Amino acid sequence: MTSEFINLSVSDRTEMRAYVARPEGKPLAGLLVFQEIFGINSHIRDVTERFGRAGYLAIAPELFHRTGPGFESGYTDMGPGFGHMQKLTDTGLEADIRAAHKWLADAGETRICSTGYCMGGRVSTLAALTVPLACAASYYGGGIAPSQFNPGLLDRLKDLKAPMLYFWGGLDSHIPQESVRKVTAALRDAKKNFTNVEFSFADHGFFCDQRASYSAEAAALAWPLTLAFFQTHTAGQTKPAGA
Known about the structure:
- The chain is α/β, with parallel strands linked by helices.
- The chain has helices at 42-53, 79-85, 90-106, 119-130, 177-189, 216-234; strands spanning 2-9, 15-22, 29-34, 56-61, 112-116, 135-139, 164-169, 194-199.
- It has an 8-stranded mixed sheet with strand order 1-2-4-3-5-6-7-8, with helices on both faces.
């Protein structure tokens, strides 16, 4: 596996840095990896590399490139990241999604998945509304249901173009259980293909081993589930769902 930062041109004439992990040999599929509010920091780079070692051509686009190019932080001060997040727009995010998706397609990937963490869990859902994907995963995605930071995506879930895998922490105070119920109800009402996983003992950010809320047990269970979900929806597929 090799990794590097690259630069992408976005349709709004901005330039976006992205972190890429390339596996040895032919990739199993392409993968979009969407960041937390802490930027493309060491954790997101590590996750991208893990997917690279698992056989995926993985790209993590820098979603704060308009307001904080190069921004990354640890997990003790959420203020700066929230400041950047509040300046994001779905229009801008959709342009970023398309730019990263195009890079994977131009690299020859016809089977493309996505995953995202925290803020990126919402973006992964947005990606499944924006570009053709084989499937998408979302880890504790805040803002899919309406929140104090944005109006949510509930009214758009009927237009999802790919099967979804959602992970939640049962102890997560950032995403109330009522918000999770609203997401699953909207998906069920729209008769969408989705898998919902709740770890009753886990908190927000349980997959990140740099956070105090890290749960080694939940992370160890979520990882093979994610890989199995991707493999199930990409094996033998010749073009992305919805294409």
